[in-house]
Amino acid sequence: MIGAINHYRMKEFIQVLRRFVPPYKKYLILNLVFNLLSAVLTLFSFALIIPILEMLFKVKESVYVYMAPGSASMKDVMINNFYYYTQEAISDWGTSATLAALAGLLVVMTALKTGVQYLSSYFIIPLRTGIVRDIRNYVYDKIVSLPIGFFTAERKGDVMARMSGDVAEIENSVMSSLDMMFKNPVMIIVCLGMMIAISWQLTVFVLILLPIAGYFMGKVGKSLKRKSLEGQTQWGLLMSMIEELLGGLRVVKAFNAEEMVSGRFHDENNRFLDISNRVMRRQSLAHPMSEFLGTAAIAIVLWFGGTLILSGTSSMNAASFIYYMVIFYSIINPAKDFAKGAYAVQKGLASMERVDRILNAVNPIADPEHPVRDKDLRGAIKYEGVSFGYNDEREVLSDINLDIPAGATVALVGQSGSGKSTLADLLPRFYDVDKGRITVDGIDVRDLAVHDLRGLMGNVNQEAILFNDTFFNNIAFGKPDATQEQVEAAARTANAHEFIMETEHGYQTNVGDRGCRLSGGQRQRVSIARAILKNPPVLILDEATSALDSESEHLVQEALDSLMRNRTTLIIAHRLSTIANADMICVMHEGRIVERGTHDELLQLNGYYRRLVDMQKF
Asked: Which residues pair with 388 in a beta bridge?
């Protein structure tokens, strides 16, 4: 049964433990100590069977004499003196009283054994729950640290499935098996040691028999990890479909596509059902197969051991053989549990593999070994021969050169897909350039610590990203030590204070999931207040007013004007009327800057910009 985990899988399991167990090694040591005590007490409690058989029921008539310590081996002295005291008890108290004393001793030994077993489980629980907590923390921290580009290639629902379903599977499979994986081998080793002491010939036979049984158990479990991995991947797909449905429910209903999306989900859910059935059937086979193989092993050992006794080639007598069989039977259950734990580990390792795809992901946006520390950066930005592509197949930006003086306002305009947002995303290093470089006050952004670089910048996006929290915490998001007065001042500048105070609890009112309790203009003004409070020298506005009505746009534009004052500002705009006063307007087309100048200068060129202006007049 021990062969149910093959060598490679066992190495994987040990590697998982090496990664996560060290902070909890004291619990592991205590668990192993109490498991060892439990195994020893089990053997001693079973040993009480022999004198009951041999002396109380007249199986063996012998007279024992007390042996002094050191007169023979410790084992022989202990066994002889145990029989001696039992013999004396029979002569002094009678057979019935001695039987009662031995039975009471058996109860005491069992109480000690079960108490020790409880302590072994008691100390493994903090290790199990602590490791699962740590894995969740590691995954969450890794998700926070990974670049935005990682999640463009991954389904959000699948990432959620890895953090929820896969981590839960690791807890239910790998961590729940820790007790079995540490307790049962100790029990098996101690019992095998006693079996060798009783009859080495019979134990050699057992050691040949058990791996054969384990081989058949391993055959069933070989494909379990592969199927479990397939099942968890399919679960991630279902989570993605649910996440997409919740995000796009308005579109689904508007296009009467309920039946279509339901049909797709049902098809994938049925596929998940089929995979789950196959995994559970294989897992369910572990117990009956181990039961059958265990019974077959006991029957074969009974035959072989009985043959040795009957032929007179063994030093065992009938009572010792019965004790041997009791010990052998006592390792069958741990071996079966070990096999079941092995199947659980196989399934959990599949989930660990999926979680490791996040934990082992390499973050290309790394801090330099010796970052430049300059706290007096003014915000002069320069793009020098910058080229970039999201993959090797196509460049999104080609040979961009752009000089933005400190305090200047530069607008990027152009058709969708021309590279405006990508150009802005390269500045805070959401992605790194493929060619060229970007500098702030002459320092390459890759020579600055990422935290310091992004601390220079404030972002206001087309979709105002708010968290399911209060107004206060959303505005103070980038500055957690902000005071109430500072938050209110930022909200007033952003034209948000009045509508915030009209809510039930003012600044302590919850805005709902993604700010669902607010209008688009209100969400945007809270987002602007957040940027104002941060007070960054560089500001990136990504179509901040394009999704608003005229009245909201007017209020938001006023807030933006206050925010942009005396800051280096990079504006991405669709509505050209909002950027007429920019210091410079850059027109982008197919990843290149094709025109640049002020509003009036570009109109006189009668080129790309003029066509964009004319299109918006209609």
From this structure: 397
Q: What is the per-residue pLDDT for 459? A: 82
Residue pair 366/226 in contact by the 8 Å Cβ criterion: no
> Is 223 a residue whose pLDDT tops 60?
no
Q: What is the mean pLDDT of residues 349-371?
A: 84
**Burial class of residue 50, CB neighbours in 10 A (0-12, 13-18, 19+):** buried
Beta bridge partners of 592: 589
Report pLDDT digits (tens) over 170-194.
877 766 667 666 777 777 888 888 8
Contact 325, 191 (CB under 8 A): no
Global confidence as pTM: 0.72
- Helix and strand numbers (H, E) in the chain are 24, 10
* Residue type for position 522: Q
Sheet holding 397-404, edge to edge: 397-404, 381-388, 435-440, 443-444
Q: How many CB atoms lie within 10 A of CB 513?
A: 11
Side chain identity at residue 504, one-letter code: E
CA–CA separation, 123 and 182 (whole Å): 12
Distance from C-alpha of 12 to C-alpha of 349, rounded to nearest angstrom: 8
Comparing CA positions, the residue from 170, 199, 262, 226 lying closest to residue 6 is 226
SS3 554: helix
Lookup result for tokens 């100590």: 33
pLDDT in tens, 509-556: 998 877 888 888 888 888 888 888 888 889 888 876 665 666 666 777
Nearest residue to 458 via CA among 360, 563, 366: 563
Rounded to an integer, what distance in angstroms lies between the CA atom of residue 382 and that of residue 441? Answer: 8
Place of tokens 């036979």: 205
Backbone angles phi, psi at 382, to 5 degrees: -140, 125
DSSP state of 55: I
Closest to 353 measured CA to CA, from 16, 23, 128, 8: 16
